[in-house]
Amino acid sequence: MNIPAYLKYTKDHEWVKLDGDEATIGITDFAQGELGDIVYVEIETLNDTLEAESVFGSVEAVKTVSDLFMPISGEIIEINEALEDAPEKVNDDPYGDGWMVKVKCNDLKQFEELLDAESYNSFISEG
């Protein structure tokens, strides 16, 4: 299973990559594997400012629908529109082309409080 060390993680299986005060967010390799084939990604929160742990969208797989949760507070400034026509990118490349949203962060301390790769690996191993 792929858990890049340069990212931070949540217990809801989202990942965060920080670049200045802008965060790119997606779901982890573990999450996409658990969901199975993703057939639809719904994110209708562009330009919304959401608190950490708020729902920002959902992913639909063949057998289930799962909410997507904000790892950190901020304004959603970009949505990966490529997922509208190719939701399978989340399965194929969850940390690259399968990213979900970009967020302008309100509180960078929240990023530091997220799980590092080692802690996330321990969390899913115990699961």
- What number of structural domains do the residues give? 1
In CATH, the homologous superfamily goes by the name RNA polymerase II/Efflux pump adaptor protein, barrel-sandwich hybrid domain
Tally of extended strands? Answer: 9
Q: What's the order of the H and E elements?
A: EEEHEEEEEHHEHH
CATH fold name: OB fold (Dihydrolipoamide Acetyltransferase, E2P)
Largest sheet: 6 strands, antiparallel
By CATH reckoning, the class would read Mainly Beta
Mean pLDDT: 96
Number of distinct helices: 5
Overview of this protein structure:
The chain is an alpha+beta fold and 127 residues long. The chain has one domain: RNA polymerase II/Efflux pump adaptor protein, barrel-sandwich hybrid domain (OB fold (Dihydrolipoamide Acetyltransferase, E2P), Beta Barrel). The protein contains five helices and nine strands, in the order βββαβββββααβαα. The protein has a six-stranded antiparallel beta sheet. The chain has a three-stranded antiparallel beta sheet with strand order 4-6-7, with no helix packed on it. The longest helix is centred in the C-terminal third of the chain and has 10 residues, at 117-126.
